[in-house]
Amino acid sequence: MLKIPQRKLPLFTASLVGIILIVVFTAYQKSLLLDMxxxxxxxSSGFITDARAILNYRYFLNENQRLEGEILKYRKDAVLxxxxxxxxxxxKQLLSFKEQSPYALAVxxxxxRDPGNWSRGVVINKGFxxxxxxxxxxxxxxxxxxxxxxxxxxxxKIILISDMDNAVSARVQRTREEGMVSGTxxxxxxxxxxxxxxxxxxxxxxxxSGLTGNYPESILIGEVREVKNEPQGLGKYCVIKPxxxxxxxxxxxxxxx
Amino acid sequence: xxxxxxxxxxxxxxxLWPLRVKPDLLLIVAVALxxxxxxxxxxxxxxxxxxxxxxxxxxRLFGFNALMFCVYGSLVYFLSRSLYRETPWLAFVFLSxxxxxxxxxxxxxxxSPYILIGLFEAVVxxxxxxxxxxxxxxx
Lengths: 257, 139
Known about the structure:
Chain A has helices at residues 9-28, 30-55, 57-100; strands at residues 105-113, 121-124, 137-139, 144-151, 156-160, 168-172, 178-183, 189-194, 205-208, 220-229, 236-242, 251-255. Helix content of chain A is 35%, strand content 28%.
């Protein structure tokens, strides 16, 4: 049994009471104490974290590089997915048009463009082995593109309607006026040989007329953008906005029958 | 280099170039080769290949580019030898003249004002040549 000497008993009792009082006091002030101790605790834990990071930097560096590689791969996959989705949409539209069309159509992809600046043409990946023949008309779901100019076994050259030497007999749908659509020097499209009293106006739809037999009738060419007088003053011509964006062609339909 | 220039001009540039008039990379390569190449027979083979590559994908006049590139290459080769070749603007002069001559002939053959396109293309070719030359010098 613990024996406390009698002369030390008051000191012991006072110490005990003091400790109890301190504990009770700190119980009420613990949040203040916590705040006071949090700052140095934070500093020291930050120091420990930094020290650990320094010791493990090689691990973190490798992990960072690995994760960066994964992010890059996912980004590439995302771009590819978007591209495939857009291609899928385009091909669905082409297929839908092909199924509804009265013509026998062959789908072809553009693989190259005319390298010069004075003629407008593209090369497609289908040729006479796939049923393409010289003179076949080329369209998309939106309208007229051109016609087949040259055919080889597995490729064909298409001359676009924006080429200066490609003329398409055309008609303004609203007024039934006949004219000739051809390309301009910088790749635009105009409809010439309209009469001086032509009633054509901006917004009128222009279709193929089928008069020369090179192109079937009623294929959409574009829309009149503006009507101007011929320089010689003998008639009028109109600037046409083509229905098909000839600069962004990716797939086309060739009318094989 | 010829194949790379051809691939860029025929496949890549039409999609990316913002202007209506594209630079003629194969002509630029042909003129550059004529200025740099030491052996005439080898030069003729290279410039012929440049022109032929362009002809394969052109709509009309197959062989015109091959023939004319040989003519331009020969003229540039012999003329540059009687001039101080290190003159920096010599390449631009030859390139512009070749471009304008090309489109002048096309205008004569087809009775169309293709020379106007030639003027724009001469400017674009020179611009591209200077950019390519700077990129090459930096490398």
